[in-house]
């Protein structure tokens, strides 16, 4: 009997090393860094193979609409969308994945993989996974390793032992090494980069948690039993899930278990974990430079560098080995050799607005973008998708003026609904129940001017919402 493989994509990361493009509310897995599809979408495409069942995505509760929209955009219906109310690293997510699959197929295999890696050859990836199936069917917890081609200090390593068939025993796991140690690993031929991809029987992983990390398993099981199910997703119970230890699967299980095997991932691979890694992947000019993004970038007398801009024109003169990333509200300039340290920079910014969200903020109905602000006023551009509809709502502290600049807007105010076309406007008084919708077939663009004593996004009272945001005040 053929054993089914159930892919589970981990999409809870924050991608801080790719700041300022990657931010808490729009991390790297949702960014279209290498073409017309995001890293999450590319990962889902990679799994569109008869070898795999439809994927489950485990992600951050705050990203639920991004996950659902990006999968719908490429025509993929997920098996499940499981939302974490708080981040608890990969161990709790792995326990959750095993429990979800075991409830449906006690003999099923779980393929656990990140949402934000690049593996350009989907067929080669599937072939490598298939080579790991015999070991997983025999009860092993299988991890996949990549043969290193240079002494990388930003990856974890696996030291391999004896080989049986396509799998090796794992002598030990090594966290990110020094440059000297990484060079020794490369020369020894006995070490692989840890790709962060796992294949295991659901019941075997549950047994491993029962033996090695029972508290995490109990927390995951309790969080699933009490999960809230709505709008095509299940949100794990926060109190139960918070009780799980915040630890990686490697630390909690893989480094302690005696039935771990590794299979070589014989395909191009990158975790695109830093700006230097993105530079590695992209095509370069004769001087080794990458100019990336929608804005104009001018490079003169510069070598081996990466530049990105989404708004302003950027010029770089007389530099070597640098990263320049410019967004509307933040600019990063760094040595490419220090790209891994961007994560430390973001931590030092201590949750400042520029680390949390872009000036353009996505919502299930479209997006809004801040244009200008001052004392008692704020100006935004709103885009409402065709068929999109904001909640029926009111504000305690602000009034709003809307001007339609593209498309058609349906405005409900005080129980009356009226259509507005381009160059028409309306006024929403403080405290008035109102709703904005787009009944047309093209995106509706509006300029919104807010005025009042408090202009925060949390000044909102919802009465109706087609996206199920009434029960959770975090869903803005």
From TrEMBL:
Annotated Pfam families: ManC_GMP_beta-helix, MannoseP_isomer, NTP_transferase
Catalytic activity: alpha-D-mannose 1-phosphate + GTP + H(+) = GDP-alpha-D-mannose + diphosphate
Record carries keyword Transferase: yes
Residues covered by the MannoseP isomerase/GMP-like beta-helix domain: 302-349
Keywords: GTP-binding, Nucleotide-binding, Nucleotidyltransferase, Transferase
E.C. number(s) listed in UniProt: 2.7.7.13
Enzyme class, UniProt record, top EC level: transferase
The keyword Transferase appears for this protein: yes
Location of the Mannose-6-phosphate isomerase type II C-terminal domain: 352-465
Alphabetized GO MF terms: GTP binding; mannose-1-phosphate guanylyltransferase (GTP) activity
Span of domain Nucleotidyl transferase: 8-286
Any Gene Ontology biological process: polysaccharide biosynthetic process
Recorded family membership: Belongs to the mannose-6-phosphate isomerase type 2 family.
PANTHER family cross-referenced by the UniProt entry: MANNOSE-1-PHOSPHATE GUANYLYLTRANSFERASE
Protein name: mannose-1-phosphate guanylyltransferase
């Amino acid at each position: 009997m053929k054993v089914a493989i159930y892919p589970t994509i981990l999409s809870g990361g924050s991608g801080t090393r790719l700041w300022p493009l990657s931010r808490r509310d729009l991390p790297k897995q949702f960014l279209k860094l290498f073409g017309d599809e995001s890293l999450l979408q590319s990962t889902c495409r990679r799994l569109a193979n008869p070898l795999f069942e439809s994927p489950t995505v485990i992600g951050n509760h705050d990203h639920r609409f991004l996950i659902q929209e990006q999968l719908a955009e490429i025509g993929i219906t997920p098996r499940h969308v499981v939302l974490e109310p708080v981040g608890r690293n990969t161990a709790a997510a792995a326990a959750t994945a095993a429990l979800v699959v075991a409830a449906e197929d006690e003999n099923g295999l779980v393929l656990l993989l990140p949402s934000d890696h690049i593996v350009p050859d989907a067929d080669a990836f599937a072939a490598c996974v298939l080579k790991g199936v015999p070991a997983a069917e025999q009860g092993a917890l299988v991890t996949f390793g990549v043969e290193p081609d240079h002494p990388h200090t930003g990856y974890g390593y696996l030291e391999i032992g004896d080989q049986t068939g396509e799998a090796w025993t794992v002598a030990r796991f090594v966290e990110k090494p020094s440059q000297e140690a990484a060079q020794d690993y490369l020369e020894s031929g006995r070490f692989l980069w840890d790709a962060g991809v796992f294949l295991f029987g659901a019941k075997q992983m549950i047994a491993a948690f029962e033996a090695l990390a029972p508290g995490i398993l109990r927390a995951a099981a309790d969080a699933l039993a009490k999960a809230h199910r709505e709008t095509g997703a299940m949100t794990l119970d926060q109190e139960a899930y918070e009780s799980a230890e915040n630890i990686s699967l490697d630390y909690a299980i893989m480094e302690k278990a005696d039935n771990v095997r590794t299979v070589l991932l014989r395909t191009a691979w990158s975790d695109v974990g830093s700006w230097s890694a993105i530079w590695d992947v992209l095509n370069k000019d004769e001087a080794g430079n990458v100019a990336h993004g929608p804005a104009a970038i001018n490079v003169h007398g510069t070598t081996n560098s990466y530049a990105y801009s989404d708004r302003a024109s950027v010029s770089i003169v007389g530099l070597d080995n640098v990263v320049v990333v410019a967004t509307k509200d933040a600019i990063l300039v760094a040595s490419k050799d220090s790209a891994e340290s961007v994560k430390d920079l973001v931590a030092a910014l201590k949750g400042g607005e520029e680390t949390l969200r872009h000036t353009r903020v996505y919502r299930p109905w479209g997006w809004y973008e801040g244009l200008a602000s001052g004392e008692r006023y704020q100006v935004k551009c709103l885009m409402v998708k065709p068929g999109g509809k904001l909640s029926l709502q009111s504000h305690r502290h602000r009034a709003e003026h809307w001007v339609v600049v593209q498309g058609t807007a349906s405005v409900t105010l005080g129980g009356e609904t009226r259509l507005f076309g381009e160059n028409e406007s309306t006024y929403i008084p403080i405290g008035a129940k109102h709703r904005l919708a787009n009944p047309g077939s093209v995106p509706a663009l509006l300029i919104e001017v807010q005025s009042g004593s408090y202009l925060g996004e949390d000044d909102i009272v919802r009465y109706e919402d087609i996206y199920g945001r009434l029960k959770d005040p975090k869903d803005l």
